[in-house]
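In response to the reviewer comment on reproducibility (Comment 2.3), we provide here a single inverse folding case reported in full, input and output, so that an independent group could reproduce the run without further information from us. The structure tokens appear first.
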């Protein structure tokens, strides 16, 4: 058998005039019944399995059914020769048609493989027990998707006889030009990958980045978006984020807050410590483990300064402020009840008892008239 190259003239083979109508209608009716059955089975599977999996299985079965019906009808109609003749009319050789078929198969296989990778990385949204966050898994999926499609593209170019080395040379020159033109953008993208791999914060974390403090609302390849405590949304380039100090207040799950209070020098510091510790021991706004601490930290100008250290769980600015409010109210009430004075800033002035001391002379008119009368 000689291979058809697409250059010889081709005579179209006409379809058979006596198409079996009864058999065609029977095949179509059977296909419709099978399609209804597949649809019904897919609906039942949605109740027992994930809806996405059930729909995917139903679509594949319907696609196979349609392909099988097409093959059966073509054979019953005797139209195989006509399809080959049409290929010749379109001036495609069998080799070209085979290459097109393999190309389509490569990209379909690449798409299927990316869906499998997506199921593995993102199929379960629960991150308990996983070493990576959902955002990192999504980034890994995007990277693997690009790699898979690039591999399919390289295989397709090789199939069609295109020199990959020439393309790589052109891509290298183009990469240099784009790198010089978009240096800052590429720097932010590379910094974005570093942030995603190092995981200094996640979406919803309460962080401080340089002079900005708030909650992370978005992490992208190019920038980080946070909502500050005033309700403003701040967009920071990844390159700027990686060059600043990052403080994550949500990563530990708890946060220590410090409040200072001064007591009079006439008060026993140990007694003041015990009163303050007892006052805050039963507050609902702070954690009992770790236990709150009250420690003297320094001598102030007018008081001995005590430092009250308390812990709050699931830290947010609102919980921090409520904890500080509750501690201040409780300590102030306890000090008033136990007569522990919280002094105002004050200074003591004393004069020396010397022979050459000084005295204050009032130069007001009333003092002068009184002195003359004396």
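Designed residues, in position order:
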């Amino acid at each position: 058998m000689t291979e058809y190259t697409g250059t010889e003239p081709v005579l179209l083979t006409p379809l058979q005039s006596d198409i079996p109508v009864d058999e065609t209608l029977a095949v179509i009716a059977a296909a419709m019944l099978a399609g209804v059955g597949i649809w019904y089975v897919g609906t039942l599977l949605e109740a027992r399995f994930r809806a996405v999996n059930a729909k995917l299985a139903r679509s594949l079965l319907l696609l196979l059914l349609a392909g099988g019906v097409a093959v059966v009808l073509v054979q019953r109609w005797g139209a195989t020769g006509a399809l080959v003749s049409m290929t010749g009319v379109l001036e495609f050789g069998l080799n070209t048609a085979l290459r097109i078929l393999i190309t389509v198969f490569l990209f379909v296989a690449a798409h299927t493989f990316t869906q499998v990778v997506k199921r593995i990385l993102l199929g379960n949204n629960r991150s308990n027990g996983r070493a990576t966050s959902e955002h990192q898994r999504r980034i890994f999926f995007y990277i693997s998707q690009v790699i898979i499609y690039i591999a399919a593209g390289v295989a397709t170019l090789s199939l069609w006889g295109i020199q990959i080395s020439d393309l790589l040379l052109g891509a290298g020159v183009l990469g240099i030009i784009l790198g010089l033109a978009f240096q800052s953008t590429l720097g932010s993208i590379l910094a974005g990958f570093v942030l995603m791999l190092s995981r200094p914060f996640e979406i919803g974390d309460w962080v401080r980045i340089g002079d900005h403090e708030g909650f992370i609302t978005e992490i992208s390849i190019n920038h980080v978006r946070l909502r500050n405590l005033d309700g403003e949304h701040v967009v920071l380039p990844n390159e700027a984020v990686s060059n600043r100090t990052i403080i994550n207040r949500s990563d530990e799950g708890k946060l220590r807050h410090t409040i200072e209070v001064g007591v009079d020098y006439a008060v026993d510091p140990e007694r003041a410590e015990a009163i303050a510790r007892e006052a805050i021991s039963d507050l609902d706004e702070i954690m009992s483990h770790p236990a709150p601490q009250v420690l003297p930290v320094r001598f102030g100008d007018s008081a001995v300064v005590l430092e009250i250290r308390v812990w709050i769980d699931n830290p947010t600015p609102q919980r921090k402020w409520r904890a500080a409010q509750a501690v201040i109210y409780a300590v102030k009430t306890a000090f008033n009840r136990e007569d522990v004075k919280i002094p105002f800033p004050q200074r003591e002035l004393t004069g020396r008892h010397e022979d050459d001391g000084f005295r204050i002379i009032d130069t007001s008119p009333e003092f002068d008239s009184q002195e003359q009368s004396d």
